[in-house]
Amino acid sequence: MRNSTKISGDATPRRRGRPLSFDREAVLRAAAQRFRTHGFAGTSLDELAEATGLNRPSLYAAFGDKRALYLAALARTHDWLVETFRGLREARLPLRKVVRAVLRGGIDTYLGGEKGPSGCIAINTAVVEAVTDPEIRAALARILELEDEAIEAALAEAGSPCPRAHANVVTGVLHSLSVRARAGATREELEAILADCVDVVAGPAQS
């Protein structure tokens, strides 16, 4: 979910468009960034080819159609979140810092994008398609379930007296930050919401 990435190696189609070699992670990262900017319906295969550096036959050979590439980008997002939350738990931070780390990580991500703040690929694009596409709905649900469980576990380990309720608050604010970032909220405005959430969950900072 970063700037468009040019894939190294020869992407000239050979044997029905099969690419000779490419960095799958880099391709998915670039595709996710483009989907995050324009959404699933608003992103064309030509735009994905431009973003990834692979031509259309190579994309088809490697991933299938646009929908399959979008689902792969959502799966990549899920895997990235698994590693992110693992690192958070391994840091063993106190409660206030856990909440701050989760929300600030979200803000840093949401304010990035190819053409400005793009929010979260799941919250800001998958929710649109989930109404009519069962597989995208399942991928979105999987990401939400991961967030719920990982944040609850991190808060419990940090000493929250009611980790599930606090996790519901934190994830709700996290998703709101994604929407607000796309709506043009400044970092200062998002950080103010972060600070309020930290105080709600962990109590006001002791002076």
What do you see in this structure?
- It is a single chain.
- The N terminus is likely disordered.
- Helix 8 packs antiparallel against helix 9.
- This protein has 9 helices and no strands.
- The N and C termini lie far apart (38 Å).
- The relative contact order is 0.13.
- With 207 residues, it is mainly α.
Summarize the structure.
The chain is mainly alpha-helical and 207 residues long. It has nine helices and no strands.
Describe the SSE topology.
Layout: H1 24-38, H2 45-52, H3 56-63, H4 66-91, H5 95-110, H6 121-130, H7 134-157, H8 163-182, H9 187-202
Helix pairs in contact: 1-2, 1-4, 1-6, 4-7, 5-7, 5-8, 5-9, 6-7, 7-8, 8-9
Task: Write out key terms for the chains shown.
207 residues; mainly alpha; disordered N terminus
Rounded to the nearest angstrom, the radius of gyration is 19 Å
**What structural class is derived from the secondary structure elements?**
mainly alpha
Q: Please summarize the sheet with the most strands.
A: none
Which residues form runs of ≥5 with pLDDT under 50? 1-19
Shape: elongated
- How many β-strand stretches? 0
Helix content estimate:
55-70%
Mean pLDDT: 90
Helices and strands, in N-to-C order? HHHHHHHHH
Strand residue content: under 5%
